[in-house]
Write the structure tokens for this entry.
Amino acid sequence: MVQKLKKKRGTPAQSPVILKQDKDLVLPKLDLTLDTDSENETTSTKSDSDSSLKTVNGFIVTNNKKVSSKPKKSAFTKINNSENKVSQSKNSLASEFTEETPQLADSDSNTDISSLGDSIQTTDFEDQNINSKMSQIDLKREEPFEGVYNLEAKFLKKFGVTKEDLGIEPVLDFQTWVDNRKNLPQIEPAYDSDSSTESQENTIGNVPIEWYAEYDHIGYSRDGEKISKPKVDDELDKFLKDADDPAALIKIRDELNQKDIRLTDEEIGIIQRIQQGEFPDATFDPYEDSVEWFTSKTMVTPLTGAPEPKSRFIPSKWEHKMVMRIVRSIRNGKIYKKPEPKERENIYDIWSSDLSDKNLQNDLKRIPPPKAKLPEHNESYHPPAEYLPTEEEKKKWLQMSRDDRPTNFLPKDFETLRHVPAYKNLFPETFQRSLDLYLAPRYQRTKLNIDPESLIPKLPDPKELRPFPTTKSVCYSGHTDYVRCLSVDPTGVWLLTGSEDNSVRLFEISTGFCLKVWTFEDPVNAVSWNPNKDICMFAASSGEKLVLIVPKQVADLNSLVLTETLLKNGLATRNVQTVLNWDKPTTKEQEEDIYLTIDHSSAINQLIWHRKGDYLATLCRNNNSVHIHQISKQTTQKPFSKPNGLVQRVMFHSVKPWFLVATQKYVRIYDLMRQNLVRTLNPGAKWISSIDIHPQGDNIIVGTYDKKVCWFDLDLSSMPYKTIRYHEYAVRQVCFSKAYPLFASCSDDGTIMVFHNTVYSDLMQNPLIVPVKILSGHDISDSLGVLDVTFHPTKPWLFSCGADKQVYLWT
Amino acid sequence: MGKIKKAGKEGAAAKYINRNRAIKKLQISLPNFRRLCILKGIYPVEPKNRKKINKGSSAPTTFYYVKDIKYLMHEPLLDKLRQHKIFKRKLRRAVRKSEWTKAKILKDNKPTYNLDHLIIERYPTFVDALRDLDDAISLISLFSIMPSSKKAGNGVISQCKKLYYEFLHYIIQTNSLSKAFLSIKGIYYQATIRGQKITWIAPYEFSQKIPRDVDFRVMWSFLEFYRNLLGFVNFKLYKDEKLTYPPTINVELENIGASLGSLTITSVGRVELLNNLLKLDDQQITPTLPEKNDAQKISKLSDLAKKISAIASEQDSALDPNSETPEQSEQVDYANNDENDDSETIKGNNLFKNFTFYLSREVPRYSLEFVIRSAGGKVCWDSYFNGESQPNVTEIDKRINIYVVDRPVASKRISSTKKTLVQPQFIYDCINANVILSFNDYAVGKKLPPHLSPFVEYKEGDYVPKQQLAIEEYAKNLGFKGEIETLEANVENNETSTESTEIKSKKGSKAKKPENDNDSGSDYDTELDEMSADESESEAESDKGSDYDSELEDLMVNLDDDLDNSYESELKTEFEGEQYSTSTDSKKRKASTKPSKNSQVNKEEEERKKLAMTVMSKKNRKLYARMQRGIENRKKHADMLNDRRIEAEKVSAKSLKQKSKKK
């Protein structure tokens, strides 16, 4: 009953648990609940007397049916319990009130149970039988709490108590036990009453009966004897039998025992009821009247005539105490109603006040978020036809991964607005945008918004920098292979060209007439006029041989005499022990105006005269050796026993007694007098092809195989003052003009660049380098273009020779 | 000897902090850190050299400025977040223990916070806030059409809707909408407020599909901030415009379904002034009458005030053009509205000033109403007239000038009115071109001309769609914003509408040039001139008086190579009351003669350029090459588009021929 009561009350029963903890606030509520409870109880005391009778009856009925339920039992016992404890509980009420609230609820119920107990007593007198049974159950279940029932006796022993001590297992005398037993319904030992007790003859269990098909028995009995297979009727017999037997329809076959079983009427009834969808049990009444344990109906006549106890009419002292406590705490301000949170005016003019006094984060410059890209024509719902993608483009777009796509949508023409659907990617795109806003690092990029033409430097007009060679004017032909080298005589009348066809040709510059041809055994790699105007002589290299030739046809008498005396004197004063052998020419060679031959052990790649015409430097790249020959003394020196790196070019300084050696990556300048290194220039190139020095001697240009032309100012750093990259292929030769502020570079791309260069005597002013002309006319053969280029000594003319076997004069 | 320097304590390494360290330092969870970053507007930074900062590793790490994180440490919001964490823990505990009263008390004392200080911190000036409004309005407009789910509870969606509509109403009030574009993603709008161009996208109002892979926490954080921001911005905008904020919601209209129109805007000034005056009366009368003279004065004053109010109300009713109906005269608010319109003619765009549009059922009313009303037009549909409910309004209302219909054939009832019927694109194209375009092109059932983005700025060498040229030409022929006085006449001779407007344009004073022209560059104008060369030539002949001036201008033009300068001069010519095309045209002619003479010179120039390029630095040369590539690509793209256009035209011509043959 207590349990039921608890359940019925539901939440109010639980609320005291919380109330206790937050006394300050919600105690008034507690007061209320208490009130309501007591009211309910008073009503129930009056009303329940009737119902309690019913419950008792109900219990007996169910007990006979063996469907006793636990809660009912417990309820009963509780009632009896309370019967005994009424006085006790009344006494303990006061103390329990102050204790924990769950007990508080219990005590509540106890109070009203007292009256219930009275009512039950009355019923006891009416039915003795019931009483005896109840007492029996009471004895059994007079428990302090239910859990003890589950405890093992052993376990209890541990604590030194027996179940009897606890009052769980009361000691019964034999007579009462027998009496009780008599009252119990007798069990009838009938086999067919229950299916579980039905004898199973065959003990094979749940195995397919086919397994015994081959044997003459169908299984084993309980005693282990074989059960022989009964005689099996064939179908005809079966049929005839069935036809004869009126009960054939209510027989079923028991396969296990190979028997026919006749169904009883009860069983048939069950089957029929199941078929009809009814309850199998005929006696089961689904619409049985529910047992009203606690009814609201009040009885007209009370069960007891006892007067109302006094306590009913006296206000509870404890409740009063409780209420007063709350009243006190309200007066003291411990309990108060929280004021409603004031609605803050959450929107106002936030930008109204002056900014200067606000503490703003000015330390870090925040970059405002970049604006989203504005839509273009292709995003229109009805774009011009040209913005629609073709089928191919659509396919390509679909195949691309999402990140690679140039646009995140496919342009589509909907024609009218009513056809436009919701854009399904709008949410993801907005999400992406917000991700970008807080996840993407921001940085400011300075976007160049300049006219590309403004990048091109403004150069002085080339017209103002005239004269410089502009057009092809004379073509010197005759060579049958690459023309490797050329040299102009210091007077500017004659031109020498050396070629891979083993010949050196002498041309008259103005007419292009070939005056003489010298033919050698090996290709001519270098040819060079003596720069001294008084001496008429040139040097040429053919393979390993260096020859000195005095062309008698072009030499005037004075210079011829001078040259011959120079050579003769040299022969006289010649030191025999030189590095290389100075050979006298053979008679045949003498006919060819060859005066001297010097045999180098390796092929000569370059010849260069000192400006005074006495010294001649040769370079053999194969064995990496540099020789300096002195014509007047007919001696040879080897300035470097082991040059530092592969020597590409050598050069005498135009003013100072310096000697320039260009190795693969560096240009080194040596002082020949002091015998030391003056400077090292680093053009930053991978492979130097050529160098030349300005006539004033302060500037050097270096051409490289990696397409660069570097201008060095010797007064400045060892790095190039200017690097010009224009040629598409390797630069073969660079040269300065001696008479004009010009220099030229030629390259394998078949072009010659002509630059104007003004070198100022003022040291503070940087030299002015202006490209003035690109000369193109040479053809490219075997990926070789212009091989050599040189300026006329007095005029702004330029000579060039190339792999196309041509030699041109540009004026 | 100095102290040994430890790595990572000085220089760049001390300037940055990676995310994990930042979180550790702030002692918050990653989601909370994200939220804080979103609300504070803190973004990661890309250090110049990752290795120097990340202990030699170049692994992809997110870096923040140490200073930013330090600011976060002092952030009051951080404390609030922590409080919230504790609150959540306590609540969870109480609920788990079924301590409902405790839970309730906890819930009542839930820690709250506001973002006001963040807004003022991030946007110290109002203009700053306006500049960053694009994303805010886009997101709010998106959320305003979201289905309100359990997650989006607490009226967030409805608040978004309210804020968005408030903003739109401000634009309607000030007529500051400059561009509108119907894209496949949604409708783009651009409004110019305080010189700031605010562009946002509003989705088509269909139910949006909400994808699963979206982290809603991020979106909510952004939305939370934006909601606050837009609230303050709206307040400020309304206040500066002397309108009451928040605008009241007309429940009747809302029930009809006029979502945008259900807000009622009231201007503060007038109503309050009257109220104040009346209050003054009461205050001065109620004190126990001090002296007779004073009392007389006061009574006079009160009389005056009453008179003023009476006059004001009279004016209101007089100003109200719709005062025929008695309902309107009662509503002072609308009268005020109209007055505002009159005073703001100079201020904003009043393209549709004299038009009343009837919006058919199938058109997107939510957008069209906004666009039309912000261009000064009036909008109506069944029992709704321009922001007020008028139950007697139907399709055949006499005030309606134009019907906006988007179906192949208009309903009989509408077509029987014999008034202009246009498709919705007309409205948007007109707004973008800033002229009333020909109704014929947009007639119902007709194939629409392509709809172009007004946001594209044409540079030299860009492809310009044909439609753009056509619109520009049309606008130029109109001369100025054609003021069409009587629409009925226009409708009668639809074919000659352009001519009539032209005549009017000559009659009228030279109005200001449409804004759109200002936006597109002068190169573009010159191209236009080519198109209309014939006309302008004839015009040039007609007014010889100004030849001298034009010559002068030409000289100026020749002197200044800069395009901008030439544009300025064009403006000048315009100012002088001359057809601006003449000067440019003559310039063109001169330019065309030049190359024939100087082909030789050009060649030389070419060579000189080539030579000059040899002495360019490597960096410049590469840059130049890159730029050239860009120019080439642009040109290629333009050529491709042009080719496609020609092809498409051919195809359409063919199909037309075939059709005619079949007939």
Notes: Residues 285-292, 314-347, 481-571, 573-593 of chain B have pLDDT under 50 and may be disordered. The CA atoms of residues 287 and 295 of chain B lie 10 Å apart. The first helix of chain B runs from residue 19 to 26.
